[in-house]
Amino acid sequence: MSETVETPRTVTPVRVSRKPGPGERPRGVPEGARTACIRTFGCQMNVHDSDRMRRMILEAGYAEVQSYEEADLVILNTCYVRENAVDRVRGHLGELNRLRREGRVKKVALTGCIGASAESSQLQRQYGIDLVLGTHNTYELAEFVGLPTMRETYTPDLPGTEGEHSAFVTIMTGCNYQCSYCIVPTVRGRMVCRPMRNVLEEVEQLVESGTSYVTLLGQTVDAWRHDGKRFCDLLERVADAAPRVWFTTSHPSNMEDRTLRLIGDRETIVKRLHLPVQSGSDRMLRIMHRGYKAERYRRKIEVFREAVPDGTLSTDIIVGHPGETEEDHEQTLKLVKDCGFDSAYIFKFSPREGTEAAELGDSVPADVVQRRFLEVLRAVEQNAFTRNQCKVRSVEEIYVRHGSTEDGKAIGETWSGHAVHVRTDARPGEYVKARIESAGPHVLYAGEPIT
Ligand code: 5AD
Ligand code: SF4
């Protein structure tokens, strides 16, 4: 699952203009109401888990606030995929301890992938964390915030966001792969797929309550299977039920040609494929236990480009995995050029204790990793820039994802999956039509909407 961002919450029940002093109520929060702040790190899966926790705290009578200073309870929903994610959380925990000493923050909860890792007990001791939850026992937060104890719940069965213009729907959790570098199977467990009926009911409810964009989520979403049905069958049904659909993250070994064709055929599916390749070298792909060769990946992309000529393609790439030679790196650069990615998340290898790669030795020197990182980045950006230029002058239907900020620009998405800045006061969930006037490597810039 692609991620890099620390995600601030965009829906804000309570806004304050001034930081309150110790013991002072944030403005807008009713007298006596407790306050909670949720900080999300990492992938869309975590954003969705935070939505579930948000519902619990609101139900328990907490007002949600945006800064630690205003919060009685702080929930850090964390990522463990790379070491810098843990370093970042440590920084936040240190800051929270200072606020606790000043009498502002009262309780701290650590949830998500760090919560599920072996490192969590040491962090709990070091920072005096009040509650640690993994990814499988999120439901225990209910009791902690004063709600009736919940029955043990399979996390996706807990309600997430409803009634917002866009929503995530988890269709599977965990992962059955064992990629050499990856901690996800350790912290998220083996794959569990939700029954199709269950998923469709949730999608129908969301659409009924006003959701117009559904994103199906899973670590290897295309590996979904249940009762003889496969991912393509589920996607087809969801595409019938929702006005706009996307899915992430896929694994090349599970991606079927008929799914790629369905993306092109169905009007309601956003024409954007995120398919992590990790490396362009067969030798590295074997060491990583990815289960496919570069040629097979290339063939998938050919099918996608043919079936979805206007579509966008993104990927994940790791540079500097132990044992990666200059020749391996050259092959990655070649694959990047051949596949013509529209964007890529490029990661420097980060050793995670408990994974095979952390024990491999043969590490790549930091300066070499940095150079390779920049070379891959440049190759991706050059290509993305050229491809984006082709969109200039086209008129696009744009789905507004984030309403306009002070500069009057909203952020939207075309049906081909391009991010667009557009000058409109249309609200999230609405569509506008506009002509693309210019393009950078990451976004398109549209003119005034055409009425
Ligand atoms: N080091 C660097 N990148 C990693 N990823 C996963 N584990 C690691 C690691 N140990 C990257 C992969 C994956 C994405 C979510 O994070 O590219 O697809
Ligand atoms: Fe990690 Fe590999 Fe599973 Fe993706 S497929 S979550 S990289 S183990």
Describe the protein's architecture and organization.
The protein is an alpha/beta fold. The chain is built from twelve helices and 21 strands. It has helices at residues 44-59, 83-101, 119-127, 141-144, 184-188, 196-208, 231-241, 257-265, 282-287, 294-307, 326-339, 366-389, and strands at 6-7, 35-41, 63-64, 73-78, 107-112, 131-132, 166-170, 172-173, 192-193, 213-217, 225-226, 229-230, 245-248, 272-274, 312-319, 343-348, 395-402, 409-414, 419-423, 431-439, 444-449. Strands 1, 2, 3, 4, 5 and 6 form a six-stranded mixed sheet that branches. Helix 6 packs parallel to helix 7 (231-241), helix 8 (257-265) packs parallel to helix 10 and helix 11 (326-339) packs parallel to helix 12 (366-389). The two termini are 37 Å apart. The model is unreliable at 2-19 (pLDDT under 50). Bound molecules: 5'-deoxyadenosine and iron/sulfur cluster. Residues 175, 177, 179, 182, 184-185, 219-220, 251 line the site of iron/sulfur cluster.
